[in-house]
Design goal:
With 1882 residues, this protein is α+β, with helices and mostly antiparallel strands. The chain is 61% helix and 7% strand. The protein has a 7-stranded mixed beta sheet, with helices on both faces. A 5-stranded antiparallel beta sheet has the order 4-3-2-1-5.
């Protein structure tokens, strides 16, 4: 922008200039350092060339030179207009005012967002601000753009609203320099759409949209000198919405990825983040195989020498990237493959190419990085080594192979690295787009464009040219859109206007993209064989120099050119343009990558279907020179690296096409602009550099918006606003109340036109203002002139008022002085008289006090002496008593010691004698046992003897088992009786303790009565002590009440704990449903996964075939290279230049095996294995290869796989059996030997199972080997001679049958043999164990001594232990048989049910297939659907069973509670009677019920039949209308329901009461959900639910709820049921209804809050309107017929709510809670809006808000709700209004901090920053005052709360205080209006 453009015409004539540029006028003057400085005129301007001014910063005086009268200095706006939200609302629109306004908002108010017409200017604060929370999103949601403070959420809301209302696509264009915050702004915009347009489905697309951000930042962002997280590509994200305005998908387009950064970075810069994240995670186990190093050790990441970023953890970032990949559905395998390819790029950069003989190059044979790179990419190292240093040239009749020089090879290496990274970048973008797509139909979208801003550096190359070209196109759209909006505004207001001249950059765009433009000439030069940058530059000079005004030539350069862009004049260096535009990669290298063994690598480089089709994405279109090659080598690069190109379209052509598509998209949408500004280059928080800011403002089009606005009528006022603001300038004759437009015309004619001399055309001057239909349009500067006139008028009025007020104050002061003198005299005389009277009274009182004091001293001395005497006597008597007690105690202890010693000596002597006797007996018995042992050993060796012994033992075991069962049952009953007796004992002890306490308390009462009598006698003597005793008594009463309150609190806490326990039970019940659903989903996913795997199998075979063909050609060329002589070679052109040397030795990836094989040494799929190299067979042809591939029998492979699955299932079953044996516990019989025997048997069993498992593994391996021998996968799948018999289908079936028969027979024989071996081994093991036990017990642990003499005792013990072992085995076998029987029964049942379900599915499936020929996907979906229905039916059956069991358990618990309670009360006889009655009921159920009915006619019960329960719920709940209920008894439905419950309790029908209460709860829920928008119906059921809850409590029989009951009501209490759990359910139901009601009420009053509390101006004459001429941000959603909302509307709504609540007799305490919640919502909403609206923060508005709040407080008092706590919820907004009205001087800091106790520090500072004076008589809040407030608040508030907005969704806890009813149930009648004729009154 030129210096002439810095001045904006102010539409002042020469005669008016003298009135404005006068002494004291404030102006702007240019400055080299600060761009603009504020100054003040020291003299009037009369046309002189120099004028004296004084700078405001330092007070310096200087002379300012005026070169042209038409270019006078810019005028400054009044202070009252500084800090406006919208720059276009300033009266003087010019560059310095824009810059100053942004600076004030940024530095003083810390506001980073400012509107400039349709543009949102966002300044990067370089600090995390708390202005992006979810609560702020809720505040901006649904609001108009002009009502709230500028914010990116406001722009996003405007776009969302336009899209949802008019179904028109929107675009948000975010632009700016690197580091200005574009990416963050785009991220917050997308976050807003994700929150507002979030769908309620399971698949949250908005989360996936946000998850794409960390991925794109990792692979597309890098650190630059200007930004630590700079986006090095442009992207346009389309967020799709459905008809319900919910996000259903997204799509991303990328532009111009900076590929050159992959291979080179400038100083202090980094490569893409993903490389450093991989290096930071190199120690992870899964990344070990990548052989990663530190960033400094890789060539591609060590250029910038800045591997780290402060405050950034690359390892944690990689974790978030992997989580984002997972969320977007990219598998773990693909993720690791992506990281593997990127790691290969790093290693590829470290491959060193050295110069060889002649003009050739080579790579060292031991280059480990090349080996790692080839291994990671799955390619042949030899091929890559050869084709990195050679290239192929195709001529007409032959193909030439030519070696590359070192420079050419290095360039080819870098080009390949860039191409690999670009391809993986595009692949990731494509995968993200697939993940963000959905099957739903998209009707509209919002696009977010995050694109690079205008760039100019010292050296500008091809990248800057493309970026600036894109910005030229975007600026053109921007200019046209701004001009269009201005035009629409003037047409809408019917104002005649002339064409506004605005900057059109179409010539500059034509220079770049038109025919024979810069891009065309560049493409033409790229096609030339010997094209160079110098030749292209010369063509540009010849074609455009002197012909295009935007094209220039530098003076001192022949290889550069200059383009005059809209933002600046940029010089481009032509070096490298051609190579970057060509972007060539050797096809030989691409072919090698296509033949990779990894599927993803081969997929990245697959050829497109249409070879002539240009790539639609420009993400991999440009490259930089990758290494700093010498200039001399560049020409050779362009000549030699000219083999077949992968991309036939040039980068410039691709970029132009993609940009053209983007422009078409943007032109078809409504654009919204966000311009990001970088305030400084040092990245410091809240530092503003004017120079940098002005450069960006000029480049981003903000000043162009200002210029277009200023060229027309920038200031616009509606007629009411203008009249309200400037009515002070009008006389009474000028005012016409009926026509405000006429009044405004009179004022303007008098004020503006009256000061202008008459002209031939009259007084009207259309250049100053125009009258529209609804607004007045002013030229720039006119509003400032009106403000000056208004302030002058107000000053004159102020002087007049001051004169009269000062005179009145002086007179009043004189009168006060006279009055005060007389008062002083009167009060002085009275004071002297009172002093004398006081002296006389004090003298009399002193003598009397002395008399009483002396008497008191004498009495106290006597009492003290008497007390001391008594103490001395008691001490002496105690001393002598203790001496006597010690003496007697000593004698008693001596006797006790003698007794114990004598008894010990006697026991010792007896033990010694007994030990000798035992030793003699044991010696004798040992000798006799040895003899018996020999005989028993001989007998034990015979098996028949053992069998004979066992036969007798079996009968004994059965008898013992029966006895044990009987004794166990008796023991269980005894234990239950003991527990019950213990409970009764504890209850008796409690009763005894309570009776003792009662006796004690009665004794205390008698003592107290006696004390009271004594006190009464003393009180009659001394009256003064009476008052003291009364006060003590009151204190005791208070303490007693406090104790009672504490007990009540403890009771409430216990009740809350009970409620929490009930909630946990409900959560556990719901968790079972979730588990079943999860299992169903897993089953469906498993079916889908199996289908996908089968489909992927076929695709992999096809890809494997294509890959092998490619390797065939690659190796063929390599073999010819090896066999041919060195140098050039010639081959016929019709034969492929790439062949392979051996298809089986080195070609197949399945057979390649590296020397250092790691985790990749795995099967390649479908049973194949890696093998060693074999001798090379003859080279097969391509046709032979295809035949061999076709001969593979895929069916055989699938059958073998099924067989493998069956074997694996058997293996899993055996493992489960093993696990069951391990988990089974061993019964503890009290004998350690039995435990040892069981453990030994189990150990042997486990060993056998392990052996069996090993055998199965060996069989599986044999089967695998036979499969591999029978089918040869290495030779395309042909069968070997040994396997051809196996391939025959019939033979296969026969072999399978034989194999199965043999297997079953062998398994049976094996089981039988195994059981025999186990028994024998167990016997041997037990024998050895018992032998060792005997040796340890009798022979000191020596086993040899046991068998020394063949003792008979050892044989006896062995036989005994053997019998015990057999008993344990028999018990185990019985248990196993029972388990097997149960298991088989269950399996039979399951098989039957599955058979029936499968038969149904087959029938349905057959009927469907007969009508339709379904594809495989449709079949799978059908089967899945049937499976789902089957599982749901099973789920329902199981839930019914569980419910029945739970109800039965609950019933038993209730009965136990009731009986225990009656036992406690002593009603034993009543319990016995009830038990007898129950027995009779079982015999004759019907007779007892009829007898009850005949005995009692009016018992307060209603009888109904089971089948009428649905009618009862329908008539009483679903069909009951609020109007009918108003005419009935309040709470009548609740009473009727409880009377029905009473009848079920009377007949003791557990099932009936359960279904009734359950259906009641469900019916109420259904009714409230269906009619949730009908307030009266919701309140009706809130009242009835609470009444039913209170009734259940009142008639529960609990004493706590019977305190206010009558005797008749106590008779109606429940007898059989304890419904405490249902009370909790009804309490939860009432809470839910309460929340539903509150939610609806809040929705209704939400649009009323701001107009009623903030905008309503009830105080007449106190204007709080905005002082500036509002441009009025045109809202997209303003309706013409908008209902005016005010405070009266809100009050009417509150009255309506209160009326409905009272009509339905809602509990008064609950009504208080309702209005407390509503008032909290009103106060929080009002405060949040106040904090986001600058126009509301002024003194007048604070007064209006306080007045409006007083009305709300008065409403509470009028309706007797002032004690509900609702008024306290308004304290924050009340204190905020008081803060607006308070004085804001340094002396008021403490008072303000004390006053704003309910506001947080952030809220107080925000209000002070937003405070804007309405008139110039008010002062702004200084920054120093705000800083002192912050310091003071930090020192006073210990816990600093920095929350800005109040949570509007917070809800107070709801309580339902017990409110019993005085009505008796027998007095209630059922009216006919309810249609409940089927109920009979009992």
């Amino acid at each position: 922008m030129t210096s002439a453009d810095l001045y904006v015409q102010t539409f002042l004539k020469e005669s008016e200039i003298g009135q404005v540029y006068v002494k004291g006028a404030r102006i702007w003057v240019p400055d080299a350092e600060n761009v603009w400085l504020g100054a003040e005129l020291l003299e009037n301007y009369t046309g002189q060339k120099k004028i004296k001014i004084q700078l405001e910063d330092n007070g310096e005086e200087r002379e300012f030179e005026i070169k042209d009268k038409k270019r006078l200095p810019h005028l400054r706006n009044p202070e009252i207009l500084i800090g406006e939200n919208d720059l276009t609302s300033l009266s003087y629109l010019n560059e310095p005012e824009v810059l100053y306004n942004l600076k004030v908002r940024f530095l003083e108010s810390n506001c980073i967002y400012t509107y400039c017409g349709i543009v949102l200017v966002a300044i990067n604060p370089y600090e995390q601000l708390p202005i992006y929370g979810n609560e702020l999103i809720q505040m901006y949601s649904g609001q108009d753009m002009g009502t709230m403070d500028p914010h990116i959420f406001a722009v996003a809301e405007e776009a969302f609203k336009l899209m949802s209302r008019f179904d028109k696509n929107q675009s948000i264009i975010v632009s700016g320099e690197s580091g200005a915050g574009k990416t963050v702004s785009a991220k917050y915009a997308m976050r807003y759409f994700a929150m507002v347009g979030g769908s309620q489905k399971e698949t949250q697309v908005e989360q996936k949209v946000l998850a794409s951000n960390p991925i794109m930042e990792a692979i597309g962002n890098a650190k630059t000198t200007r930004n630590d997280n700079s986006s090095r590509f442009g992207k346009y994200i389309e967020i799709s919405f459905n008809k319900n305005n919910e996000i259903i998908g997204a799509h991303m387009r990328t532009y111009l990825l900076e590929k050159s950064r992959v291979v080179y970075q400038a100083a202090e810069e980094r490569n893409y983040h993903i490389f450093y994240q991989l290096c930071a995670s190199k120690d992870l186990p899964e990344f070990k195989k990548y052989c990663l190093l530190s960033p400094d050790d890789f060539y591609y990441t060590s250029h910038g020498q800045a591997p780290e970023i402060d405050g950034v953890d690359d390892g944690e970032d990689l974790v978030s990237v992997r989580e984002a990949f997972t969320m977007l559905g990219i598998s773990e395998k693909d993720q690791m493959m992506i990281f593997q390819i990127q790691s290969a790029v790093l290693h590829f950069g470290n491959v060193k190419i050295r110069e060889a003989d002649g003009e050739s190059s080579e790579i060292k044979k031991d280059d480990k990085h090349l080996t790692i790179m080839c291994k990671l990419l799955g390619i042949e190292e030899s091929q890559m080594r050869m084709w990195l240093c050679n290239k192929k040239i195709v001529t007409v009749g032959e193909v030439l192979t030519k070696p590359l020089t070192l420079t050419q090879a290095s360039f080819a290496q870098d080009a390949l690295a860039k191409h690999i990274y670009a391809q993986i970048f595009d692949w990731i973008v494509e995968k993200i787009n697939k993940a963000l797509q959905s099957g739903a139909k998209s009707t509209k979208f919002i696009g977010v464009l995050d694109i690079y801003g205008f760039e100019t550096f010292e050296i500008n190359s091809f990248e800057q040219f493309c970026i600036n070209y894109a910005n030229e196109k975007l600026q053109q759209i921007f200019n046209m859109h701004v001009f269009k909006l201005e035009q629409e505004e003037y047409v809408r207001e019917a104002i005649e206007w002339s064409f506004i001249d605005f900057y059109d950059n179409q010539p500059c765009i034509d220079l770049i993209e038109s025919k024979l433009g810069i891009l065309d000439l560049l493409d033409e030069e790229c096609k030339m064989p010997k094209g160079s940058d110098e030749n292209w530059c010369q063509k540009l000079y010849d074609k455009h120099l002197g012909k295009a005004k935007h094209f220039e030539k530098p003076r001192m350069s022949r290889s550069a050119f200059i383009i005059n862009h809209f933002a600046d004049r940029v010089e481009y260096q032509a070096d490298g343009f051609l190579e970057k535009n060509r972007d060539t990669v050797l096809e030989e290298n691409i072919n090698i990558l296509r033949a990779s063994e990894f599927e993803l690598v081969a997929e990245l480089f697959e050829e497109k279907v249409d070879p002539n089709e240009k790539k639609s994405r420009a993400g991999s279109a440009t490259t930089h020179p990758l290494r700093q090659a010498p200039k001399g080598g560049r020409g050779s690069n362009k000549k030699t690296v000219g083999s077949q190109q992968v991309q036939k379209a040039t980068v410039g052509d691709q970029f132009r096409e993609s940009l053209h598509k983007l422009m078409e998209t943007l032109n078809a949408t409504t654009p919204h602009y966000i311009r990001c500004i970088k305030p400084n280059d040092t990245k410091e928080a809240f530092i503003f550099e004017p120079k940098r800011a002005v450069e960006q403002l000029r480049a981003c089009g903000v000043l162009e918006t200002i210029r277009i606005s200023a060229a027309g009528y920038p200031s616009r006022w509606t007629y009411p606003e203008f009249f309200q603001r400037y009515r002070v300038l009008a006389g009474s004759k000028d005012i016409n109340r009926s026509d405000q437009r006429k009044t405004c015309e009179n004022v303007l004619t008098k004020v503006i036109q009256g000061n202008v001399k008459k002209t031939p055309r009259g007084l009207e001057d259309p250049d100053k203002y125009r009258f529209g239909k609804t607004k007045i349009f002013f030229r720039a500067g006119q509003v400032a002139y009106l403000e000056k006139l208004r302030s002058d008028k107000l000053k004159a009025c102020g002087i007049m008022i001051q004169k009269h007020v000062k005179g009145w104050l002086a007179r009043r002061r004189y009168q006060r002085i006279i009055k005060s003198i007389t008062l002083l005299q009167k009060y002085g005389r009275g004071l002297l008289a009172r002093r004398h009277a006081k002296f006389l009274r004090e003298t009399f009182a002193a003598t009397r006090i002395q008399k009483h004091w002396k008497g008191y001293k004498a009495r106290s001395h006597y009492i003290k002496v008497r007390k001391a005497t008594v103490i001395i006597q008691s001490a002496i008597r105690g001393f002598f008593g203790r001496i006597l007690f010690k003496k007697e105690l000593h004698e008693h202890r001596a006797i006790t010691i003698q007794k114990l010693v004598r008894s010990w000596l006697a026991r010792k002597r007896y033990k010694r004698v007994m030990r000798g006797i035992v030793l003699l007996q044991s010696h004798f018995r040992r000798r006799r046992a040895k003899k018996e042992l020999k005989q028993l050993k001989i007998e034990a060796k015979s098996v028949e003897h053992i069998k004979n012994v066992n036969k007798g033992l079996e009968n004994k075991i059965i008898q013992l088992q029966q006895k044990l069962d009987a004794k166990n049952k008796e023991g269980m009953t005894i234990k239950e009786q003991e527990v019950y007796i213990k409970q009764l004992k504890t209850e008796m002890e409690k009763l005894r303790s309570s009776s003792e306490e009662a006796k004690k308390s009665s004794n205390k009462i008698t003592d107290l009565i006696q004390q009271i009598k004594d006190l009464q006698e003393e009180l009659s003597k001394e009256r003064e002590e009476k008052q003291v005793l009364i006060s003590e008594k009151e204190e005791l009463v208070k303490e007693h009440t406090q104790v009672l309150s504490k007990m009540a609190e403890e009771k409430c806490k216990l009740k809350e704990e009970l409620e929490e326990a009930n909630l946990k039970l409900q959560q556990q019940e719901t968790s079972t449903d979730d588990v079943l659903k999860r299992k169903l989903e897993e089953a469906t996913q498993q079916l889908q996964a199996e289908f996908d795997s089968e489909r992927g199998h076929h695709q992999r075979l096809v890809k494997e075939h294509a890959r092998l063909q490619q390797r065939f050609e690659n190796l063929q060329s390599e073999m010819q290279m090896v066999t041919s002589p060195h140098g050039h070679k010639r081959t016929p052109s019709d034969i492929s230049a790439i062949s392979l040397e051996s298809y089986t030795s080195s070609a197949s990836p399945d057979e390649v095996k590296y020397e250092e094989e790691g985790p990749e040494d795995k099967d390649q799929g479908y049973g194949t294995k890696k093998k060693k190299k074999a001798p090379a067979p003859p080279v097969p042809t391509a046709s032979a290869m295809e035949k061999e591939m076709k001969d593979v029998d895929v069916g055989l492979i699938l059958r073998l796989q099924n067989k493998m699955k069956e074997i694996e299932q058997q293996k899993t079953k055996l493992e489960e059996r093993l696990r069951q044996y391990e988990d089974e516990g061993h019964p503890q019989t009290g004998n350690s030997d039995a435990v040892i025997s069981n453990s030994a048997f189990d150990a042997l069993k486990m060993q056998e199972l392990q052996n069996e498992n090993d055998k199965l593994k060996r069989e599986v391996n044999k089967l695998m080997k036979s499969i591999s021998e029978n089918v040869s996968f290495e030779k395309g799948g042909t069968n070997s001679p040994a396997g051809k018999e196996f391939m025959d289908a019939k033979k296969i079936e026969d072999q399978v049958k034989v194999f199965r028969d043999q297997f079953t027979a062998m398994a049976d024989e094996l089981d039988r043999r195994r059981e025999e071996c186990l028994q024998l081994r167990a016997m041997l093991a037990e024998k050895s164990i018992t032998t060792h036990a005997i040796a340890k017990e009798s022979y000191g642990g020596n086993d040899d001594l046991v068998n020394e003499d063949n003792e008979l005792a050892l044989a006896y013990r062995t036989q005994k232990e053997l019998n015990r072992l057999l008993e344990n085995q028999l018990q185990k076998t019985e248990k196993d048989i029972k388990k097997k029987e149960e298991k088989l029964k269950r399996e039979i049942k399951e098989l039957k049910t599955e058979n029936e379900a499968a038969q149904k599915i087959i029938n349905q499936f057959n009927s469907i297939t007969r009508n339709l020929q379904l594809g495989p996907e449709a079949k799978i979906e059908a089967t899945m659907q049937h499976e789902i229905t089957r599982l749901t039916s099973e789920n329902l059956d199981l839930r019914e069973k569980a419910d029945k069991q739970a109800d039965q358990i609950r019933k038993m618990k209730k009965m136990l509670k009731v009986y225990a309670k009656k036992l406690k009360d002593g009603d034993v006889a009543e319990i016995e009677a009830e038990l007898e009655k129950d027995d009779k009921q079982k015999k004759t159920e019907d007779n007892v019920a009829t007898v009850k009915h005949l005995d009692r006619t009016y018992m307060g019960m209603l009888e109904y039949k089971k089948e009428d329960e649905g009618r009862l719920i329908k008539c009483l709940i679903m069909d009951l209308k609020p109007k009918v209920a108003q005419g009935l008894l309040p709470g009548l439905p609740a009473y009727i329901l409880f009377m029905c419950v009473r009848h079920t309790d009377y007949i003791n029908d557990d099932e009936k009461v359960r279904t009734l209460l359950t259906n009641t709860i469900n019916g109420i829920k259904k009714c409230v959900k269906k009619h949730n928008k009908e307030l009266e119906r919701v309140i009706l059921w809130l009242a009835n639910t609470c009444r039913l809850l209170h009734t259940l409590k009142q008639y529960s029989g609990e004493k706590t709820f019977q305190s206010e009951n009558t005797s008749r009501q106590n008779e109606h209490c429940l007898r059989n049921f304890d419904l405490s759990e249902y009370r909790q359910v009804f309490s939860d139901l009432a809470v839910w209804i309460f929340q539903t009601m509150i939610k609806y009420m809040e929705e209704v009053i939400q649009p009323m809050v701001v107009p009623a509390v903030l905008e309503h101006e009830a105080i007449a004459g106190l204007s709080a309107s905005k002082p500036s001429g509002m441009r009025g941000r045109s809202s997209s959603t303003q309706d013409e017929d908008v209902r005016e909302l005010s405070l009266d509307t809100l009050m009417k709504s509150l009255n309506k709510y209160n009326q409905v609540l009272s009509q339905h007799a809602v509990d008064p305490e609950l009504v208080k809670q309702v209005f407390r919640q509503l008032y909290y919502y009103i106060g929080s909403n009002a405060l949040n809006n106040l904090l986001l609206r600058k126009d509301m923060c002024n003194w007048s508005k604070g007064m209006q808000i306080r007045y409006n709040l007083s009305h709300l407080e008065q409403w509470l008092r009028d309706n007797k709700l002032n004690e509900s706590g609702a008024q306290s919820t308004l304290e924050p907004i009340t204190q905020a209004s008081q803060l607006l009205q308070a004085r804001k001087s340094e002396a008021d800091v403490d008072s303000i901090c004390e006053m704003c106790s309910k506001l947080t520090t952030a809220q107080i500072v925000k209000i002070l920053n937003l405070y804007t004076p309405v008139d110039e008589f008010e002062e702004r809040v200084p920054i120093s005052f705000i800083r002192k407030i912050q310091e003071r608040l930090k020192s006073t508030k210990k816990e600093e709360d920095n929350t800005l907005l109040i949570d509007t969704k917070y809800s107070f806890p709801v309580t339902f205080p017990f409110n019993p009813s005085s009505l008796t149930l027998d007095s209630i009648d059922v009216p006919e209006a309810l249609h409940l004729d089927f109920l009979t009154r009992v």
